[in-house]
Write a structure and sequence with these properties.
Residues 33-145 form the TNase-like domain. With 176 residues, the chain is an alpha+beta fold. It has one domain (24-171): OB fold (Dihydrolipoamide Acetyltransferase, E2P). The chain is built from six helices and eleven strands. The protein has helices at 2-20, 71-84, 112-118, 129-138, 150-156, 165-171, and strands at residues 28-30, 32-36, 39-42, 45-49, 52-53, 61-62, 68-69, 88-95, 101-107, 110-111, 123-124. Strands 1, 2, 3, 4, 8, 9 and 10 form a seven-stranded mixed β-sheet that branches. The longest helix is centred in the N-terminal third of the chain and has 19 residues, at 2-20. The radius of gyration is 19 Å and the shape is globular. Mean pLDDT is 84; it is low at 4-21 and 161-176.
Length: 176
Amino acid sequence: MSGTLTALAVLAVVAVGATLLGPRYDPVSGRARVSDGDSFRLGEERIRLLDIDAPEFDQTCTDASGADWPCGRAARDHMARLLASGVVSCVPHGHDRFGRLLANCEIGGRDLGREMVSAGLAIANGGYDHEEQQARRQRLGIWAGTFDAPRAWRDDHQDGLSPLKWLSDLFRPSQT
């Protein structure tokens, strides 16, 4: 019995050590090219912002008067303007299932995730709750009317989305 407890204690120490000493990712920076409202490219590296989810490029939302508007394109265009303002610096935290680097990124001290959520062009997804509440109160962007959450929209439009969607982003003209 004591051998089992010792083995469990050793495994626990190894697990904690692996977590603390797990993979570290070097910061990345440079000029970026927009993909959509929550992702972009730095060179050949695909980056996905942590803690936000922006409408998909082809997604539409409804404004306060009930008219459709291209909220996905608006999110992409806003991200393009942010990226055009300077050099992006990112602190990576891992990769998603599509191989994109998951990161918190900024330009000139401005957090890109915070900027997108504050503009009402992305929802908070594990962070930026205060900014989302302010955008809701001010009825900015997607909060001015109605919309499907980006995750729900992707699920409903799965036929039109490919796991290789990022490949089409390579050939879509950049607005930066």
